[in-house]
Amino acid sequence: MNRRSRGSSSSSGSVGGASDSCRRRSDVPRNRNNDNNKGGDSADVSFIVGTCSSMCPERERVTRERLRDLSVFERLHGNPTKSSSDLAVKKFCRTLSAADVQASDVRPLPVLEETLRYLLSLMDSREHPFEVVHDFIFDRTRSVRQDLSIQNLASERVIHLYEEIVKFHVISRQRLQSCSGASISSMHHLNMEQLAKTLTTLYNIYDVNRKPDYIYENEAEFRSLYVLLHLNTSSGVMGEPLSLWFRKLTSNLIKSKEMCFVRKLLRSYRNGNYRSFLRTTASEATYLQYCISEPHIREMRSFAVECINNVCYKLQPYPLLRLSQNLMMKELDVESLCHECGLEIRTDSDGCIVLPTKQTSFCRPKEGFKNYDLIGIEVESLLCEDT
Amino acid sequence: MAYVSMGEAHRRITEYLNRFCGAVSYQDSPMLCRLLSFSSNSPSLLSLADALNVFQDASSLIRQSDKFSEYGEILAHLFRSLQSYRVGNLVEAYLAFENFANAFVQEFRNWESAWALEALYVVCYEIRILAEKADKELTSNGKSPEKLKAAGSLLMKVFGVLADPYLVFFFLKLYGKGPKRVGALYVTCQLFKTYFKLGTVNLCRSVIRSIETARIFDYEEFPRRDKVTYMYYTGRLEVFNENFPAADTKLSYALQHCNPKRERNIRMILKYLIPVKLSLGIIPKDELLQKYNLHEYMNVVQALRKGDLRLLRHALQEHEDRFLRSGVYLVLEKLELQVYQRLMKKIYIIQKLSDPARAHQLKLEVIAKALRWLEIDMDLDEVECIMTILIYKNLVKGYLAHKSKVVVLSKQDPFPKLNGKPVGS
């Protein structure tokens, strides 16, 4: 048999699999013990193992002390030039490529867990206005996520971290509503954006290395949030139409209590059944589900007012008390909602406050993120149930 | 694997090489197709594979002759793929075939005309099929399936080659028409199949944009079979996005132009067209459903005809998995409002028979009672809510006198038909 001679005329000089032109794009994090990693495959990115033992890499802390770039939470005794390893937390910064990052700048999983615990403990801080608290935790949790993703970590402990971060974004969403200031609305927008991103990553990690027919403890609830973010097909928050998204869910996810709940909401929403939508939300929503549903609650209520105004007999103005029961709102809030919709209310001869119908001045209220209470649901007690 | 002697192996390999080079020299497309269809499992290809596994150093054979070594790279990858395929290493087979395809497409670009288009189709088909097999192998070994995704990227590249405007322009100048671009639709369809299977349907968008906006493509030139497939997939995309009029146009086109003998294909089209038509208020005949074995829609259609909400919900539950997998579940759920409309119409007709003077007044209490007969428990507040929506969306014409708890229907056409438009929003 002829031996293969050197200097082959074939340009690729193919030997075994080393020159495979197949490039593996890792947009899904995988365990580093994956056998698919062949040693000789140069297209593979090997993932960093972080070695930074404190919440903030030492050199970053020193630099920021010098540049007076310390957040109020990081200052030792209020000193803008001095921090400590107990207070400084690594900042988020856009790295240009994974190749530029050093292992000593990246925190391993136990440190990240400790960091997140610390950050979330600040949520109850009363020293500073919530916007300031939110801003700090927002940025620093983003950095935690960055460290997780650079190291390509994916395990149940990591899932727990991401779930906690999602919860942070949701709780923030609620608390930002009571804040005022010019920057609140952009903070809210950025918060929702990062919420969506964190959810996407979380879903990827649920999917990776999944045992067949297994769903994680909180997976059904967190998946249900996707549906709630996409009730309105024309607002593609995360891009994919719901019909397509449902195709990929496993059977036991679809049959879970949380998914059945959101599917019921989805049906009511799409058929315009505001009664069923509000009632179902009030009786079955978890804290997270409720918070994410708030914009749609608002939407359904405005829609209800629009329909009622459009459809009801002119000679029988609609009593506000009745309306408030239908919409599960306080009467004062209904008045406010009607005003937002450009509608007038009147007091009739019996002294009842009514909404005259067939008013032509109806307009869809502006996109706000402040919401009226949902009567029939105790939001704060839901939060205690979940945590 | 049969025993093959060295000499016989040598003979078979050389024969294949001669055939391959001959096919290219004489632009014999059908021959080339036969030489590349792995998944056809033709005896000649299988016996070649056996020969390769015995001989082991086919590259040396290729290098021995100038005629063969001209296509050295293509053939080396092709042989490796075939060898792996034969022994059941499907991941290796796919990887090698990918390399082969890359090299082949480069050659294809250099060839003067589109004589090898059919062969390129075969290559595209094999890419997808091998990738699917490779993914099965990966999954069964507990690894994540990623070859179909890679296939999608590769097909996209091929599509790019065929759709290359410079290439097309060049051919237009030389030959008056660039027949190569005709292949773009076929490749597109392979791409669609791949993306749909992967679930990365959003990737279809950029491909569609190329086909639909670039005026290079004269749609009429494409072969009918490809047009039907194209309309089927883009129609399905419209269903996912709930653009019903567009979905109707595309899927109806596919249905009209589909070969009537291809019953399986017609069934596939109807599977998506029926929910669309239902959403537009058009109800298919039972014979159609029976002929194409679409029994899952029978109860849905019946519910619409009779205004039976319970039956609709029951039908959705019974076939929930199937409807969710095909992506039509949400579309069917929305038919509820039309079912309500039908129910109201029935109540109205019954009332007209017993008391014509007051038939146009639908008491909320009566509606609630009718719903209770259907085992649906609804309080008056919710009944009022439903009626409000029906009137608002123009499924019922009239007004609601809430104090009197009655819906007063318009004397004229109180239950307007949809007339091919989706329910008003």
UniProtKB/TrEMBL annotation, chain A:
PROSITE patterns xrefs: PCI (PS50250)
Family according to the record: Belongs to the SAC3 family.
Region described as Disordered: spans on this chain: 1-42
GO annotations of cellular component type: cytoplasm; transcription export complex 2
Gene Ontology BP annotations: mRNA export from nucleus
One of the Pfam families matching this protein, by short name: SAC3_GANP
Domain of life: Eukaryota
The PCI domain, residue ranges: 191-371
Listed Low complexity bias regions: 7-20
Gene3D superfamilies: 1.25.40.990
Protein's organism: Brassica carinata
Biased composition (Basic and acidic residues): 21-35
Name the record gives this protein: PCI domain-containing protein
Automatic annotation (TrEMBL), chain B:
Gene Ontology CC annotations of this record: transcription export complex 2
A biological process from GO: transcription elongation by RNA polymerase II
Residues covered by the PCI domain: 228-414
Segments crossing the lipid bilayer: none
Molecular function GO labels: double-stranded DNA binding; RNA binding
Protein name: PCI domain-containing protein
Organism encoding this protein: Brassica carinata
Taxonomic lineage from the root: Eukaryota, Viridiplantae, Streptophyta, Embryophyta, Tracheophyta
